[in-house]
Each structure stands twice: as C-alpha cells, then as structure tokens.
C-alpha cells in the first residue's frame, strides 16, 4: 500500500531547462586559473631550483672582503666579455650561475661631475644599488682620462643577509682604441642556497593549492545550488547562466594578500635584478621581462587597499572612498610600475635611494636594502589610493546626473562589462531586467559593504530567461550576499524574513517599531539555502 503525501509547491517542481553559457564558463575559469597560478608565474622570470647551482663556498666562509672581491671578479670580469656578447649586444643572462650582465659604451672623462650619484651612477646599469666603495671607484674612473680601468664589487644585503653580489668593470672597446671610449660592464649574481630555492618552490605550490581550494569553496561551489534554483523558476522554459569572475573575492582574503606580498619579497634579489632591467632601455627584451615581473607589485597595491579598508571601516569613512575596479587597479599598477621605477632610478630620486641603501650598511663594500624595500613598497602601494582619490572627485562631479540601473550588465567592472557586452551582442533589447538590489542598499548605507575599497560587481552572475520560442524575457542579475554584505556591522540594520521566493533579495524599508522613521534593510531569504540574491 503506497503512502499518500502532499505534492510539493509548484515553485519547487523543476520545470525549467537550465544551460550554461560556455563562453562565460571558459572566461571565468581562465581568469580564476590566471589568479590561482600567480605564485608559479614568477618562474617565467626566475630559475627553478634545479636550474641554478649553489653559490661558491668561498662566499659562505669568513674570508676577507678583499679575497671575496678577487674571486667575484674572476667569476665575472674574466668570464663575461666579448666572447659571450655578440656585436653590440648589451645584455647576457647566465641561468646556471644566476647572473645577469649588462654593458654600455662610456666616453671619459665625464665632465663636469657636480653630483656623482646623479651625473655618473645614472649612466651605469644598476647604478641605483651601488655601495659607497663602488660609487667612489666609479666616480674616480669616470673623471680619469688615462688608461685606468674599473674593477670593483659589492654585496647587497637585506636585513643583514646577503641576497646578491654586484660587480663593475671596464674594458677597451677594441684593442686598438684609446682609453677614452670603453665598455662599462655591470653584473649581478643572486645568492640563494638550493635549500632556500626548494623551500620557496614548496611554499608557492602550497599557496597555489590553497588558492585553488578557496576559489572552489568561496565561489564555484555556490553554482550547484544556483542550478537547483534556476530549474524551479516558474513560467520559464530555458534559463541560461552567465558565470561571473571570482578574481575580486581573493582581494578580500587577508591571508592570500599577505602571502603573495611575502612571496614577492622572498625574491627580493630577483626584484632588484628586474628593477635594474627596467632602469635601462638598451635591451628591450630585458626591459619587457622586468616590467612583466614587476607587475606582481599589484599585490602590494591590493595589500595596501586591504589595510585601507580596515581603516575606513574602523573610523566609518566608507562613504569617502568609492569601491575600485580591481581590473583598473591591476592595469594602472602594471602600466605605471615600469615607468615609475624608471623615473625613480633616473632622476633625483637616485640620491634618496643611494643614501637609504648605504645609511645602514655594515661596510663601504655593502648595502642594506630593508629601508629601500619599504620605500619602494609604499611608493607602489600608494598608487590605488591616489587613483581612489581621483575617482572620488570624479564621482562627486557626476553625482545627480541620473538614476543608476543596478540590474544592467553595464553596471560592472571594466573587464566584466566588456566581456558581457560582447556576449550579449546577439540578444538585442531585453524586455525586462532585474536584480542588483544589494548595490542600491550599499549606495544608501556604505558602511554595510564588506570591503569599501574593492568592487565585487565582477563576481555577479546573470540569468537570461527565455520562453518556448527562445526569445529573451528577462535578464536577471544575482549577487553573492556572503561576499558583499558585512553581516557583523549590518546586524542592527538588517531584518531577515523568510519569503516564498526562489531568489532572495534585499531592500530598504522603514522600521515599523521606530517612531523616527529609521530605515532598515529587509533581507528576504530564499526557499533554498542559497547566498545568491537578486
């Protein structure tokens, strides 16, 4: 005998055909993979542990600096000469020895020399990083008009640890030339043990796996319940899901931001070498490679924005800083980090860096880079703050020009807006759009935003609802409540109510228990345990 049970509500019966827009799925996964692989992309410019040899043992002993300098010059000046440079080539990389070498033609004497750091060091590849002893040797060489040649080395330290060695030397352009026009060489050799390189690789692999796990748990897993919800939409024949971009979710994650910033400075010697590459334009290949590597500085910007978000929320200043487009931050940082670095190394800033690198040095033959790291971090990290201030001024000028359509796919971050416009070209006009209620609330109460600095609009997905004839009926925007709304700060303003709806929504209303017309946020929850809201 069969038991008789009541039929489920019509809204809970799956009647809608659900389909993925495969273009959006591909783009979403590609963007997520690009982000997840960020730690390992460093190896496009760095060597793997098995590609580099251990530093020579003499450099790890208590030998005198004079002995080490003679040995370093034998490794560089006696090895890297016309035999490894072809024609007028000015860049060479020895992967096995973890060494990069530059050269340029210099005509002596350089006169007048009123400021050695500015007049002479700017003409040397890597002149930004020279120790006091090497600076003195270089300036004496540049002022001489005799056969005197330059041979000098130094060690670069960060927090007392030697991370690389640098050497400068000169040779005649041709054996028959006089000594006024010479090749000036500069070589930089990384100093990192095999064990350290292996440890750094393991750290990056673990960080990559952690990021892959987080992108699944915090974003893609929510599409499972979304599929269930879409299948139960009433009076709809086909529901097509356009997947969003999870990139901005990572920018809210303090552990990931911190780890990626640490990962960058674990390779401080590589960063310094790439700064040298960006400070010259003789080798376009080296310049572009250095500019690409330094684009990782965008994580310094994101870390700075994460700290700024904490400050804004602490002092309730969320309204003075509009949420920034993470794509624009990345583009601005990537586009400016190279030119900004070039300007710092070829202007009066070189004097500031020369002083900072040597003020805490332990000897005239060494530099200490910890303060330079802090200065460079602040100068790059401040870029989004300047951008945010400009954006705030522009937003104030545009204020009141008309209502904002929060449901539109054009109300989005630049990258996502461009992708969605291309995907929706075939649609034509859609009779109705809905969703985006979360952003309407945020405009009224900025303090409810989980992150006041980073826009989360790119994570939104869109549903295209079609009838039997496959004609579009509605374009619906869905946002992830868990990543947008700060439930801790919002507790006293949010009233949650269970509603007979497929997708939850938020809206502003007036409290019935208040006599002063206090406005509250009414959160109407879905029939499903889902973080998606219209």
TrEMBL record:
<keyword id="KW-0472">Membrane</keyword>
<feature type="transmembrane region" description="Helical">
    <location>
        <begin position="250"/>
        <end position="272"/>
    </location>
</feature>
<keyword id="KW-0812">Transmembrane</keyword>
<feature type="transmembrane region" description="Helical">
    <location>
        <begin position="292"/>
        <end position="312"/>
    </location>
</feature>
<feature type="transmembrane region" description="Helical">
    <location>
        <begin position="373"/>
        <end position="394"/>
    </location>
</feature>
<feature type="transmembrane region" description="Helical">
    <location>
        <begin position="324"/>
        <end position="343"/>
    </location>
</feature>
<protein>
    <recommendedName>
        <fullName>Transmembrane protein</fullName>
    </recommendedName>
</protein>
<keyword id="KW-1133">Transmembrane helix</keyword>
